[in-house]
Amino acid sequence: MMWYGLNSRIFNNSKKKKSLYSNTKNWKFNKKILSYPNFRFLFFIPQAWNFIIFQNKSVNNFIFYFFSSNYYLVLPLQSNFIRFNYDRMTNTLNLSFLFKNNFYGLFFNFFKNIFYSFTSVFFKKLKFKGKGYYIYKNKRNSIALQFGYSHLLYLYSFFISIKFLSKTSVFLFGLNKSEIINYSKQFINVRPINIFTLKGVRFARQIIYRKTGKISTYR
Question: Any idea what the CATH number is for the domain that residue 196 is in?
């Protein structure tokens, strides 16, 4: 078993129980490993979180155990394909894999979004433009949209919060990033932006190029 965290000490589960490394500066990568094409991933650990690393020699893997006062996450990784380093100054965990694969980048981006969702809030800001466009909100946190149709369209939100900044702008925020993105896409698909008149729903600070209208040949 190995213990490693903000105190930057590692203990081996042997009979002597002596400290292998007393400082993170002694933990260095092998020069042969650096010459191979590898994948590196920088993982910032917030101040309220700490982590423990367990090594199981029988299975030959590492188990990263991240925990705080309210939550915990477990991440098992094979020790044959990974080297790691921890920087106390920046509180960053550096993971280096021997094999370069697109799966590693996709997996750790999803893991980073899940991990940071416990400590940060994700948000999206939407704006709409059009004559006679209105938005209504009820007590159940659902939105009724009147965007030029003969009937009202409803959008239901269960895990995010909605706030009206003005008559033409809506602010979406919550802990679930995928839920906010999916809800904002549903919002935009109700009335997409028109490239001729620039009327419809768009993201804040979204660059949209207006298309010039066609001139009649009989003119």
Answer: 3.90.930.12
Question: CA 199, CA 127: separation in Å to the nearest integer?
Answer: 10
> 61-67 and 169-174 as β-strands: parallel, antiparallel, unpaired?
unpaired
C-alpha closest to that of 128 among 21, 49, 203, 32: 203
Answer yes or no: is 213 within a domain: no
pLDDT at residue number 215: 60
Residue 49 lies in a domain: yes
3 state SS of 66: strand
Q: Which of 170, 153, 33, 152 is nearest to 94 (CA)?
A: 33
The three-state (H, E, C) secondary structure of 22-33, written as one string: CCHHHCCCCHHH
Please give the helix or strand (H or E) that residue 188 lies within, else none. helix 177-190
Bridge partners, residue 82, by sequence: 97
Query: Using 50, 70 and 90 to split pLDDT, how confident is the model at 10?
Result: very low
pLDDT (0 to 100) of residue 128: 92
Domain assignment present for 217: no
Question: What residue numbers bound the domain in which 149 lies?
Answer: 122-203
Coil vs helix vs strand at 71: coil
The C-alpha atoms of residue 128 and residue 167 are separated, in whole angstroms, by 9
Q: For residue range 141-191, what is the model confidence (pLDDT) as tens digits?
A: 788 888 888 888 888 888 888 888 988 899 998 877 788 888 899 999 999
Rounded Cα distance between 120 and 46, Å, is 10
Both 184 and 92 in one domain: the answer is no
